[in-house]
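Q: Hi! New to this. If I give you a protein sequence and the SMILES for guanosine-5'-triphosphate, can you show me the bound structure?
A: Yes, paste them in.
Q: Okay, here:
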Amino acid sequence: MSIITLQLGQCGNQIGFEVFDALFRDSHCPHGLCCKRENEAYQASCKERFFSEQEHGVPIARAVLVDMEPKVINQTLSKAAHSDRWKYDQHSCFCQKQGSGNNWAYGYSVHGPRHEESIMNLIQKEAEKCDSLSGFFIIMSMAGGTGSGLGTFITQSLQDQFSDSLKMNQIIWPYGTGEVIVQNYNSILTLSHLYRSSDALLIHENDAIHKICAKLMNIKQISFSDINRILAHQLGSVFQPTYSEEGSRYYRRNPLGDLMENLVPHPEFKMLSVRNIPQMSENSLAYSTFTWAGLLKHLRQMLISNAKMEEGIDWHVRPPLSGLPTLSKMAINKELRFNTSIANLVILRGRDVHSADLGGFKDPALYTSWLKPVDAFSVWRTQRAFSKYEKSAALVSNSQFLAKPLDMIVDKAWNMFASKAYIHQYTKFGIEEEDFLDSFTLLEQVIASYYNL
Ligand SMILES: Nc1nc2c(ncn2[C@@H]2O[C@H](COP(=O)(O)OP(=O)(O)OP(=O)(O)O)[C@@H](O)[C@H]2O)c(=O)[nH]1
Ligand SMILES: [Mg+2]
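A: Thanks. Here is the predicted structure of the protein with guanosine-5'-triphosphate bound:
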């Protein structure tokens, strides 16, 4: 089954390019440390998901590119064309002359209705190229105006017109010391509206990825391209093919559907994060060897201590003892900053993958009490190595990881709202104070639900 990627705004388009490039490079890496037949099956599965039939032998990304100004789309098209590996369909792009000026209301209420028909037509054409459609992967930032406002509008249109297809939004959380003064307004409007119309929100924080670039990759002058490559690597480690079930050699057909089934058991909890291990510069990689036991021990501690990367993991955080009454368990959780999960999916790729022991992720103490660990934990595997790593693991987690950052963003937006700063820029385009209040209420409920796990 295929996935259509929607690239929205500057951020969505720049990340989208890196994602397709990472997927393509990995699937065409000649060895992948497995036999030729297996490599070909992996490649075919990746292609069915993300690329349509070849034009003169060049695969075409299953993507629709949207921005309200032409510059980034033109750059993105030309980068792909110059890669000589794959390209975009020039007819699957929509752009205008003027962006949304970091105003969510302008993207949502002006650009949205005005361009809905043209954009939905492009999406419809892309869908017709798929033999079978798994769903949509929608990449956008939440701080700007186009990706966030128009992206939210288009996600709602997809809900109406493709009600049987899944929608997962890849959302970029802005830097805490952000460049956009109204980023907290744009963020709460995006999240609250998507909470109603999307099936899952996969969230990456720019601050966290920036640190990975600095600490793990040793990059000195960090650019968006560096950040986007890390992001693309993480997404590739999730979305590249894996076996359909334990013991099978066939590749999974419906990755988006399986992901939702494994990770989103309740509509109140749809925020997902990705962590992966190992992640390091090529220089360091040349001197490193890994065992599954070591990788999984670190990945589990990253999960429970809510660390975004291997460096600086807090090894003092331990799961609460079982049998404690819920209230004291909550108190201990808070004190030790233990990150409780709803559900986790571990994805393993590489040599001896069937020998990896995942017992540590099945401990009931890691999960909320209302789901049994057997329903809350899943594993996907493939013998095929990913990227340049002989063994690697990714973790997609639905957990408390974002409750605090969300709480902070809601708080900051609320303080600004209380003084009525910049509100007129939103009411001018039909987003009323009432809409803000609805957004605050919905997100406060989400925060409380996650805190109370
Ligand atoms: N990770 C990452 N973040 C980006 C990138 N480009 C912009 N951002 C972030 O996205 C937010 C700004 O949103 P943009 O995507 O630039 O805005 P837009 O959707 O083009 O909307 P308008 O320019 O207002 O029309 C800020 O939080 C930036 O930090 C990128 O290439 N990668
Ligand atoms: Mg822009």
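A: The domain at 404-451 is CATH 1.10.287 (Helix Hairpins). Let me know if you'd like me to explain how to read the tokens.
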